[in-house]
Structure prediction request, 944 residues.
Amino acid sequence: MSEIKYNEKLIFQSSMEGRSGDFIPNYTDDSLIPKNLQRESPPRLPSVPENEVVRHFVRLSRLNYGVDTGMYPLGSCTMKYNPKINEKIASESNFSEVHPYQSEDSMQGILRIMYELGEDLKEISGMDGITLHPAAGAHGELTGILITRAYHTKQGNPRKKILVPDSSHGTNPATAAMCGYRVVTIPSNENGTIDVEKLKKNMDEEVAALMVTNPNTLGVFENEIKEIASIVHEMGGLLYYDGANMNAIMGIVRPGDMGFDMVHFNLHKTFSTPHGTGGPGAGPVAVKEKLKEFLPYPTIAFKDNRYFFDYSHRDSSIGKMRTFYGNFLVLLKAYLYIRANGGEGLKRVSELAVLNANYLKKKIEGLFDLPYKNASMHEFVVSATNTKKKYGIRALDISKRILDYGFHAPTVYFPLIVKEALMIEPTETETIENLDRFAEVLSKIVEEAELNPQLLHEAPINTPIGRPDEVTANRKPILSAFAIPDKEG
Amino acid sequence: MSYFNHSKNDIEKMLSFLGMSNIDELFTSIPEEIQLKRPLKIKGPYPESELVKLSEEIKGSIKTYREIFRGAGAYKHFIPAAVDEITSRAEFYTAYTPYQPEVSQGSLQAIFEYQTMMSELTGLPVSNASMYDGASATAESILMAWRHNKKSTVLISEGIHPEYLQVINTYIRHTGITVHTIPLTRGLTNIEGLKDTVKDDISSIVIQSPNFYGNIEEPGKVKEIFPEASLIYVTNEALSLPVLKKPSDHGADICCGEAQSLGIPLSAGGPYLGFITCSNEYLHTIPGRLVGVTKDSNGKRAYTMTLSAREQHIRRERATSNICSNHALMAIRAVVYMSLMGVTGLRSAALLSIKNAHRLYRALIELKNVEPVYPNTPFFHEFLLKIPLDRKKLTERLERNSYLGPLEISTFPYLKENSTIKNSEEESLYLFNTTELNTEQGIDYLYSAIKESLL
Prediction:
């Protein structure tokens, strides 16, 4: 990462009238559209020749850090390697040029991929039905909680509350609120797992569901999950599985066997599809038999040697969550990843993800405070309260200094129940050498915290920019190039 | 094919460092009785060469067409090669959401440029970093207006894409918002008919242009009748924006929809690119990521995500939306596409699409028994005709030469909640679309095939 330090002008600043390329024939006759329905002046878009556009974006790309640049131990995000063959196949015209409203007969292969992927995800999660529509994890949560609501409504009472642990992702309570539920937060116990006694106290017949990430965001397995499930089920509630941490458990334990009623997957985490600098991902939702009738329509079915869109549950369905059938090209990549690994391979993925995390944890645990002592799964959380107390060095400073050493930073300040949290998820696709190097870097940084704390306050220094002034960005938001004051260019 | 690199030796070394003799010891915190005692029943592993064979086999049962006359919210436009080239750069596609701005300036600046271009296209000063798709962006826009003015009735034109209406209904079902649809007259939203509507509780009015039937709306008239309500201008064809009157000139407060046309392939329906732009008054109610300009610690220009206090990871149940991952890479496709094409290219693509559509329209309405459903209503690049056809014959002719014909409304499964098209009429209605990629030969072939298939 170091050494790349240049100012890349905005593309609008490279614009020169009449310089755009001719990608299609030039055509200017607008006489078919009545004048009063037309735009008065054209949008101010840049006019730049192809090679300069390419250079602009290539230079921008070099200011970025990705999984292909180096280790990206961003906790809760599962930044594993994105296989290139999947990218290549997904870019082929047989997949990319299919119109979504083609006939079923003309897209049997597309339906086959979606059907087989759905079957595999059901097997991995221990569920009975699935929708591939959701475009992201949060979109999957929204689908799942709307299903929850439809289920309870059919029982006669939609109920009022959703329970979430205090270690949950922010998307969980935000989703519950979007579905008209009140959010009740359940505290964690001294092990960082759900406090079962407090759950019992909060569980009543107005609770629609408990949303659980397991292993949770501390990387700890909720080992009382069976009891938790029966507490929720006894009161008629549903148990929702946030699949963000599925990378720890494939082939080892299934949400369906833990007692969950539904689960969302993050194909862009567990199943290796790239994060694309903030999406597109895919967040399929799998459910137990009793919830199948509420899935968005259409689902994909197979009968008499033919795949088809199934609308048969349309009247009981929660409806549609998006246009068409899902982020197909993302689904395709996940399908290929699953085939590449097979059942045994997926289990191996989880084993090695957990092995890597535990190895790294043991390497660095002496450097920081360890808020929870129990066994970790595929990720773990340490706390920089020790360096903060001793040297005034916060988790933020450490994360910024990590960037200087050519690694991406861990997730910081999450989960909220850990002060000065550094949440580290190496994934299975890092070698032992990378883990050793990362541990050495952290050790060096803790040393620097003692000897030269100023260096850490100023970090990063080897990156394209230093720390941005986010306060000013918030106070006077400038969200478009034409809103930048002239004197700043 | 596996993507980890642990040798047997590595594993032994790591386990021994952990004081373990067996990898199963890592999982002792999972109660024995819930562990899966059998292998997952999943095909594989396949080496890479076998994956290629598998994909070849599957491709054999997927048909792609040399020319497409079907749109309905998914359009086949030309995509310059450089769009794929840039977005295939691993520095973009293997990065996460830019939480660490110091090593994400590439994504942040590209998204900032995208926001600027979307603001320019729509005339509204605020654009977010992207949404999932046009339908969910429209649903979220309605929620924005609802948070903004706290009123709870939404009027939605029946010209909206039927799937969008269904997604809106799913999203808003538990908010207390009531949806009323506005019927069409002559293929356009009957705004005049709203004059006597009670206006007190109207939160937003949602009009799509060009609408689902291709007709160009004049949503601005709504503002005269409902000055207090939020006007949401929807489009599922972003390439209409460089040609048609700007949404802001119609008085739109929010513009949203689908920008798949800006450099994103059809992809069997996704991933596409939802967008939302809005006026400054709605800034604090907009969902999703926003990228802003600031300076770094050395006083150098820097880009960063901003106004995060709206978002779920900070505000949890009080967030403006639960959206987290969005469709950022699709936004980068769009910004590269627009940078390459320039205004001239975007307008050429739109105007050629319009030209082809009008050419086809004029030819077809000369045929006996072919009736335009909305004669004399200005349309963009899509139009609806009533044609008594031998469907099987037409399909057979088109398939033979690899043409994908118009969308036959009677087979379209999404019109149930849309009362504009009555079941009785559906039988012979066809929605046609052309883009700049349709050719004279293709248009002539479609014309002849229809002529020969008339009943």
